[in-house]
Amino acid sequence: MKKKVLSVLSLSTVLWVNAQEKDTLSQKKIEEVVVTGQYMQQSINKSIYKVEVIDAQQIKNMAVTNVAEVLNQNLNILIEPNKGSGNSSANIMGLSGEYTKILIDNIPVVSDEGMGNLVDLTKINVNNIERIEVVKGSMGVEYGNNAVAGVINIITKKNYGKKFTALASVQEETVGKDYDWFKKGNGRHIQSLNLGYKINDNWSVAADINHNDFQGYKGVLNGYKYFSENNDGLRGYDWQPKDQITTNGTIRYSKNNTSFYYKLNFLSEKINYYNPLVNELYLGAGNRTYTSDDIDYNTKRWIHQFNIQTKLGRINYNGDFSYQSQERKSQKYTYDVPNRQELSRDPEVTFYKSDVLYSRGMFSNFLDSEKINFQVGYELDRTKGFADATTFESNNNGKNIQRSIFNYANFVSAEWKINDWVSLRPGVRLALSDQFDSQYNYSATVRLKTTEKSDIRAVFGSANRFPTYDELYTFVVDNNHDIRGNENLKPETGYSAALFWDYSTTNSSDWKFNYSLSGMYLDVKNRIEDVIINNSPLQITFLNVDNYKSILFGGGLNIRKGDLTFNAGVSVMGISQVLNTGNITSPDDFNYYAEANLAANYTLPYTKTLFALYYKYTGTQKRYTHQGNAQDPTDPGQYVLGEIGDFNMMNFTVSQPFFKNHFEISAGIKNIFDVTNVRNTIQSGDGHNAAANQQNLFYGRSYFARLNYNF
Fold first, then answer.
1. Could you tell me the sign of the dihedral formed by the alpha carbons of 66, 72, 73, 75, in that order?
2. Mapping DSSP to helix (H, G, I), strand (E, B) and coil, where does residue 624 land?
3. Which of 73, 179, 221, 245 lies 20 to 30 A from 308 at CA?
4. Phi/psi at 455 (nearest 5 deg)?
5. Residue 103 pLDDT
6. Residue 522 confidence (pLDDT)
7. pLDDT given for residue 17 in this prediction
8. Where are the beta strands (DSSP E) in 480-606?
């Protein structure tokens, strides 16, 4: 551990010492703006909420390929890959992907199991992203159900400043030590193209396409060509091969007080699952071969979005309308491993399917006053979902599920600028549903500008988490199982309270410093868990029984001087869970762990060579987990303190532009410390694990090279 920390400090020092005191010639810096949780786009410094922003330049410097890789650098966010499905969702403040709302341009994104939550972040490429905005804490008033732990809002590029813009990029990466150019080979291969055309002062169009070909990571396994006569289970991949094509098209209009755009997004993804087990097949006459039962998963996603911002008299109106669909299909086939050929292929079967109609509208500026502003809004969505029997933990007794849910909500808030130093914003939402009881959410935010250089934000909010398909509809009943979903579950309820302090200053040598401190408390009640309701015979269902609490303290430092930027942060989080099997209850102690990160970027003044370093440390986490007695189902078992091991992540990039920034070459190393998985005794034997008591996180150290060309 000491060597790792010393290496980080050494690289940081190199970047720091090379910074020269002379600023580059005065460059006009556009003030950073945000939209998440705001009445209208405004400066991040004036935002009523604490919004973390990752801009396009930072994303480019990271040389990442999807949103999952971007967010892994942030404190208190962990991207959890699922080996079985190939999906990766965001864990914020210790809560899994069900508790985080994922938006693209303020619209919740369709997923396999609904809308906005459990979104696979590897399906969102970074090719056309302008910035990513992150707000932690319960945001139910603004964004409705499932925004319990926070909101991640991905803002895409919609127009370009020049008459015609064309950006082309090619990136090649190793996956661990593996790399080659060939089909069915190794490595990651990425190509992208962005086009923008400004028709006139009012109209513009943009389009982009991205191809991301990930050839899989073997890890402890030996790839799809491997087989063993003793069937040792070592065939296949720890990370399944995945091939994605994403396209976007946008047409935008802006004149006077009205602007609107229509945006179309299409995703096609294919995941190859190679079965670790092989079967012996006799061919007659003493001949035999070995076959595997493999599966292809094919996903198609369409997102149509129309946004309009205009004035109705003096009233501002911002409206979004969207139709989205996502369908995942599976296709089983029998593969002759020694002879490298398919023997048979089953028809394609729909695995998951979601169709969503969504609209959100907000009206503000009723009083045309700089002191008081009201916002009244509505949100509605109709989600039609289908889940094949095989999507559940077992076969669901061959029972497919098809359900529709309609949600409607009204929300209102008022922003009162009491004076130049104090702003207050209370809010309330009433949500109606044809499946669940009415839900109420509340929020209250105070921004106190203590001096010209510092301010304090106090934020309170609530949100609900709706049950998932598994929790509602699982039905596995046979001689050995009795596991049933519960359609009478009620939504979980989350509350958060936070305090943020920011201080900015510039010294006589033009060094710019920003300091921040934060504290947050999150409480989730009526958490849904599987509960033993009868020991003999053993019967399990889902009930609202558990509680979850977390406490977070953090601090940050940002330093800028000319061509140097340096960011560092540290946090300590404590988690308390009350777990309940129906027979015994866990302790509710708080268990704490630490995280730290830093990002340093330095550009040589004359050659414009960029050096970028990103580092994150995640400390050892301890949580209670249930330990049962497999030999005696009547034994209630006990709760023991499990552990998730600590790990370090560090990436380093060097970029060199040529020909007046029209051409750029970048190269670097990702995951310098070669992290693959960590010890996990909290959850074992599920889709996240590479082996017993191991959790997959990354695919080891990789090297990349990227070429960018700006026409």
1. positive
2. strand
3. 245
4. -150, 160
5. 94
6. 96
7. 38
8. 482-484, 492-506, 512-534, 539-561, 564-578, 591-603
∠ at Cα 133 (414, 548), nearest 5°? 80
Evaluate the omega torsion of the peptide bond into residue 537 and state whether it is cis, within 30 degrees of 0: yes
pLDDT along the chain (711 residues), means of 10: 43 40 37 82 84 91 89 89 76 88 93 81 89 94 92 88 90 92 81 94 94 92 89 90 95 94 96 92 86 94 96 93 93 94 93 90 89 93 80 66 88 92 95 89 94 94 87 71 81 94 92 96 88 71 85 96 94 90 83 96 94 96 80 77 92 94 94 91 48 78 94 83
Alpha carbon distance 281, 288 (integer Å): 5
H helices, E strands: number in the chain: 5, 41
Rounded Cα–Cα distance for residues 316 and 368 (Å): 10
- Max Cα-Cα span within the chain: 93
Q: Of 522, 463, 558, 507, which is closest to residue 45 (Cα–Cα)?
A: 558
**pLDDT attached to residue 296:** 94
For 118-233, list the strands marked E by DSSP. Answer: 129-136, 150-156, 164-173, 188-198, 203-214
Structure tokens, 683: 């959850």
Phi, psi of 17 (to 5 degrees): -65, -35
**For residue 383, what are the β-bridge partners?**
356, 405
Q: Which tokens go with 131?
A: 């910035």
Let me know: does 386 contact 402? Beta carbons within 8 Å: yes
End-to-end CA distance of the chain: 46
Q: Six-digit token pair at 570?
A: 């540290």
208 vs 194: CA distance, rounded Å: 4
The per-residue DSSP string of 223-266 comes to BTT---TT--S--B-SB--EEEEEEEEEEEEEETTEEEEEEEEE
* 543 phi, psi to nearest 5 deg: -135, 160
What are the tokens at 706? 């990227």
Q: Which two tokens stand for residue 580?
A: 């309940």
Answer for the pair 121, 79: CB distance below 8 angstroms, yes or no. Answer: yes
Q: Are strands 52-55 and 77-81 parallel, antiparallel or unpaired?
A: unpaired
Non-local CB neighbours of 660 within 8 Å, separated by 6+ positions: none
Question: DSSP states of 281-311 as a string?
Answer: EEEETTEEEEEEEEEEEEEEEEEEEEEEEEE
Return the amino acid letter for 403: R
Residues whose CB falls within 8 Å of the CB of residue 60, separated by 6 or more in sequence, listed in order: none
| pLDDT the model gives residue 543 | 83
Determine whether 267 is exposed, middle or buried from the number of CB atoms within 10 Å of its CB (0-12, 13-18, 19+). buried
8-state DSSP, 489: -
Q: Which pLDDT score, from 0 to 100, does residue 479 have?
A: 59
Q: Is 71 left (phi over 0), alpha (psi -120 to 50) or beta?
A: alpha
**Token pair for residue 48?**
């009523």
